[in-house]
């Protein structure tokens, strides 16, 4: 992860936003839950780590939102459906392999049969098939969404990526990592999980992610909003805010930035909030933004697309095209990890 319309967060104020990429690219997994007032998403520590209660391929229980039913799917078939939905099939095969391992790791971390903790909103399932977890489509549904001339080639390519990494998961210090987060497009550096999630995961550190400024129209984005709409969005969340039409320009101040250059804290009137929360309120693409004031509107210019924690999908493809293997990609974006085989 992220496609998707995403959001943020956990307990407290319930907040939902649509900020990711469309289905097929950039789920930004797991940054789409209820939010607390700080704007943090559900933390990795809310999940139970894998404990090797099984060493064979098991079925994953998937809540199908369309039919409101639970479907049991072999994990490898599930991963094919996730990769086909979360990353463009046109991407380099090594990037697709990296995506397959990240998706499989996420699944295992939520499967009770492997000692993981099922997703809370799964209604008895391990995961959901939508942006709440990872988007999953079966073969029939996914092929219909691709150009007919390319659909079989795409499906076979994704199957190859999944088969070539069968059973492989990401581990840190002997355990499967709990949150193999991924997102669409970096602004040039990824974020440290502590600065975005509030949870210091050793494998989710800020790293460089080069070459993403070429070839994708989501790398840079701009939102223009009237002064009154800006104020209205703020006051829907912070009813006691003293921001008004006459003081907007003097009432909004970026206080600090993260290692990845995202906004860490921003002051709006008498409220100081995180950049993550501001992103949610305004529905913008990333926390790496600058604000400009025009005569009739406020302009918010963003760099990157997604929460910027973990693996950049676009960056993974850049690395793959430059000759890096899926192992190189994963070990770059997830600090200090290993890739291990859970089952044959």
Automatic annotation (TrEMBL):
<dbReference type="InterPro" id="IPR013693">
    <property type="entry name" value="SpoIID/LytB_N"/>
</dbReference>
<protein>
    <submittedName>
        <fullName>Stage II sporulation protein D</fullName>
    </submittedName>
</protein>
<dbReference type="GO" id="GO:0030288">
    <property type="term" value="C:outer membrane-bounded periplasmic space"/>
</dbReference>
<dbReference type="GO" id="GO:0030435">
    <property type="term" value="P:sporulation resulting in formation of a cellular spore"/>
</dbReference>
<dbReference type="InterPro" id="IPR013486">
    <property type="entry name" value="SpoIID/LytB"/>
</dbReference>
<dbReference type="InterPro" id="IPR051922">
    <property type="entry name" value="Bact_Sporulation_Assoc"/>
</dbReference>
<dbReference type="Pfam" id="PF08486">
    <property type="entry name" value="SpoIID"/>
</dbReference>
<feature type="domain" description="Sporulation stage II protein D amidase enhancer LytB N-terminal">
    <location>
        <begin position="65"/>
        <end position="172"/>
    </location>
</feature>
<dbReference type="InterPro" id="IPR014225">
    <property type="entry name" value="Spore_II_D_firmicutes"/>
</dbReference>
């Amino acid at each position: 992860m992220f496609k998707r319309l995403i959001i943020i967060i956990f307990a407290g104020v319930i907040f939902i936003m649509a900020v990711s990429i469309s289905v097929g690219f950039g789920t930004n997994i797991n940054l789409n839950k209820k939010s607390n007032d700080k704007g943090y998403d559900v933390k990795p520590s809310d999940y139970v780590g894998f404990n090797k209660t099984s060493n064979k391929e098991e079925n994953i229980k998937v809540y199908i939102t369309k039919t409101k039913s639970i479907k049991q799917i072999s994990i490898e078939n599930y991963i094919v459906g996730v990769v086909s939905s979360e990353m463009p099939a046109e991407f380099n095969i090594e990037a697709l392999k990296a995506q397959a391992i990240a998706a499989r790791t996420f699944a295992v971390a939520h499967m009770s049969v492997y000692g993981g903790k099922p997703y809370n909103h799964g209604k008895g399932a391990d995961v959901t098939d939508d942006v709440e977890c990872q988007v999953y489509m079966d073969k029939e549904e996914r092929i219909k969404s691709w150009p007919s001339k390319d659909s079989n080639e795409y499906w076979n390519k994704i199957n190859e990526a999944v088969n070539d990494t069968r059973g492989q998961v990401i581990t840190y210090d002997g355990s499967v990592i709990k949150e193999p987060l991924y997102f669409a497009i970096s602004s040039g550096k990824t974020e440290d999980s502590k600065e975005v999630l509030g949870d210091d995961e050793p494998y989710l550190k800020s790293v460089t992610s080069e070459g993403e400024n070429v070839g994708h129209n989501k790398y840079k984005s701009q939102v223009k909003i009237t002064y009154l709409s800006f104020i209205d969005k703020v006051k829907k969340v912070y009813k006691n805010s003293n921001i008004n039409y006459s003081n907007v320009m003097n009432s909004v101040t970026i206080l600090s930035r993260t290692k990845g250059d995202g906004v860490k804290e921003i002051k709006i009137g008498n409220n100081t909030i995180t950049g993550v929360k501001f992103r949610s309120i305004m529905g913008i693409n990333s926390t790496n933004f600058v604000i400009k004031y025009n005569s009739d509107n406020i302009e918010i210019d963003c760099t990157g697309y997604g929460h910027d924690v973990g693996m950049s999908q676009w960056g993974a493809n850049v690395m793959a095209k430059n000759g890096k293997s899926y192992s190189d990609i994963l070990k770059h974006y997830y600090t200090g990890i290993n890739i291990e085989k859970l089952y044959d």
